[in-house]
Design a protein that fits this description.
40 strands, disordered N terminus, mainly beta, eight-stranded antiparallel sheet, 416 residues, 1 helix
């Protein structure tokens, strides 16, 4: 499949708009933009490879903080820029040495015990067909696992037994036995699968392919009957209680009952729904709306919209703290020369708080298992040759660390 025909990248289970800065990024890469800059475009900028270190808050390095893993992507592979084929581990506020993986590592997932991170590298101009396992105890990459062509998304079942990889060009999903890292036979799906979600009981993987969602029974690895959803799906998530799948499409949110795999009536949403997040109590789905610059809370009890929350920007990533009290919305500045913001929203009132300034063109967010910190990936720095990750203290909603990493950081996951 040629690059121009590929679907948009995937970050944390959300279908992102095609990288709007791709032409500029290619130009930087082709010009040899691999060197990491010395000064960062943030207050208190530090030397490349280091991080700013204000007084640490007590929970940051404590139990449940985990290790952060960040991928680096870019469209061009000629000349090859090795820093764009890597994953950076971050521990205790500092970036560790990069780990080499395959080209364009745009999706990653971690086993529940935190022992292994699986990185799906889809390839740049030439589609890839490999997934790389990373041993989190040593931060060493294991032998690449052969899957289908253009692996674009990966999930791990909550029981930790199997990783599932969506192969967009092959129109298939590959199961990987996590105890051996051996791939099983490919599971045929609909055309160009690109999003995955797995039920909390590990029994079903849902695959978004076209305007359908295909359920796969993990006991047999057999695909079931495709379920029609609203046109142009962008994101998928499953309620923590395991009863309902929600699929956000351009103009609607489609609920699917897990017990029957029956799609309910689509819930109308504003133009260009992009990403979703569900509260830990399974009561509310939050849906971002790009054109209206709002987030809509949807009651899962009635599947009706609540009052939209005005966030004054387009959210491209959402995350909720483990205690369910705060929703964080990442607003991409859309510019390599402007800071982005993260808006904290109290879920009890659905009132947005003061925006938190982070780096240029923020991409994705992840929250530590203990809920103490949120990490935000910032794609650019002013010289366009590095990236940063902002650490936010969720108790104060202040940036406590700005960590320099290799160029063009993109997707993020935290290993417990």
């Amino acid at each position: 499949m040629q690059e121009g025909n590929r679907g948009p990248p995937v970050i944390n289970g959300q279908r992102r708009a095609q990288v709007k800065r791709s032409a500029f990024v290619r130009a930087v890469s082709a010009a040899g933009g691999a060197a990491v800059v010395a000064a960062l475009g943030v207050a208190g900028g530090s030397a490349a490879g280091a991080s700013t270190h204000p007084a640490r808050h007590a929970g940051a390095a404590g139990a449940g903080a985990g290790t952060v893993y960040v991928t680096h992507v870019n469209g061009a592979s000629a000349p090859v820029n090795p820093k764009l084929h890597t994953v950076t581990p971050i521990k205790d506020g500092a970036a560790r040495p990069d780990i080499n993986v395959g080209p364009w590592p745009q999706s990653l997932a971690v086993t529940p015990n935190g022992a292994t991170v699986y990185v799906a590298s889809s390839g740049a101009e030439t589609p890839n067909d490999k997934v790389t396992p990373i041993d989190t105890a040593t931060n060493k990459a294991g032998p690449a696992i052969k899957v289908g062509e253009y692996p674009i998304a990966v999930v791990v079942t909550p029981n930790g037994r199997t990783a599932y990889v969506a192969n967009e060009s092959s129109s298939s999903v590959t199961p990987i036995d996590t105890s051996t890292n051996q791939p099983g036979p490919a599971i045929k799906t609909g055309s160009q699968p690109y999003l995955l979600a797995v039920t909390p009981d590990s029994k079903t993987v849902y695959v978004v392919d076209g305007n359908f969602v295909t359920p796969i029974a993990t006991a047999t690895n057999k695909a079931g009957t495709p379920i029609k959803v609203a046109n142009d799906p962008r994101a998928i998530a499953i309620t923590p209680n395991g009863t309902t799948v929600y699929v956000a499409s351009q103009h609607a949110l489609t609920p699917i009952t897990v017990a029957t795999n029956h799609a309910g009536k689509p819930i109308p949403e504003s133009n260009d729904s992009a990403v979703i997040a569900i509260t830990p109590d399974s009561k509310t789905v939050y849906v971002s709306n790009e054109v209206t610059e709002t987030i809509t809370p949807v009651s899962t009890a009635t599947n009706t919209n609540g009052q939209p929350i005005n966030i004054h920007g387009s959210a491209n990533s959402l995350a909720i703290t483990p205690n369910g009290k705060t929703l964080y919305a990442v607003l991409d500045s859309g510019s390599p020369e402007e800071d982005s913001a993260v808006v904290p929203i109290q879920t009890a009132t659905n009132k947005p708080g003061k925006p938190i300034t982070v780096g240029y063109s923020a991409e994705a967010i992840a929250i530590t298992p203990n809920g103490d910190d949120a990490y935000v990936v910032n794609y650019y720095t002013p010289q366009f040759e590095s990236g940063t990750v902002s650490e936010i203290d969720t108790a104060t909603n202040k940036v406590t660390e700005t960590i320099a990493v290799s160029p063009f950081p993109y997707a993020i996951v935290i290993a417990p």
